[in-house]
Write a structure and sequence with these properties.
The protein has 269 residues and is an alpha/beta fold. It is built from 9 helices and 7 strands, in the order αααβαβαββαβαβααβ.
Amino acid sequence: MKYDPVKKVFGDIVSRNVFLRKIFYKLLDLMFLRSWHVRKQIKELYKRNQNFYIFDAGMGFGQYSYFMAKYFPNSKIYAIDVKEEQVDDCEYFFNKTGFGNRVKFKIDDLVTMNYENEFDFILSVDVMEHIHEDRTVFKNFYKALKKGGMLLVNTPSNLGGSDAEDENDPSFIEEHARNGYSKEDITEKLTSAGFKMKTFKYTYGKYGTFSWRFGIKYPILMAGKSKLLILILPFYYLFTLWFVLILMWLDVRTNNPEGTGILLVAEKE
């Protein structure tokens, strides 16, 4: 079984259950290293009392919108996704949890969107690898930001991103337009759109790569082989979770010379 079908199964389970969705968000924050990196970077960029307009570009399950709604209590968030069920589920959850007045959701496409000088901060987590017309999207991001606004992008690198060995490998991760970006490629595309690069970091270095395999990949492969193996997963994590979390902690605090993930910040001057 591949990564995306498993992700959808869990998403369907928690779609209209507020309590389970909160637990689901906590598990995503705990088990996915990218969430550790993204939340840390946001906290380094902005203080809690920030009062601005945020664009969550491709919000998926909405876990980052939820984090930002709590971390920036004075700000408003506008979140879009191309999948109607994701938008509907997020609207239901955020209205039930009291954030509906500050967080708005809409079905929209990053390639065709048309916003101008509206947002102070744009967050794009694991989205750009799904889009063929990435130059168009980067230009749309630039146009949508106010002067001085920041764009934070998290995406796979070309150094084994998407868990692929080479560009022809269909990999463990599905629905991708590309397996990952090189530093030169994504920098050139962002600067061509008008952005100034502020920071560039590799994530999922040697520690993070092992944490991904033992914490996410191998358990999903086990679950895909047999229902019996699903029952074994709690015991698997009983012995491996501490090891996985230590590896993730190390990756976040390591200046990785290379890695399978990219975390960058660009500014509209």
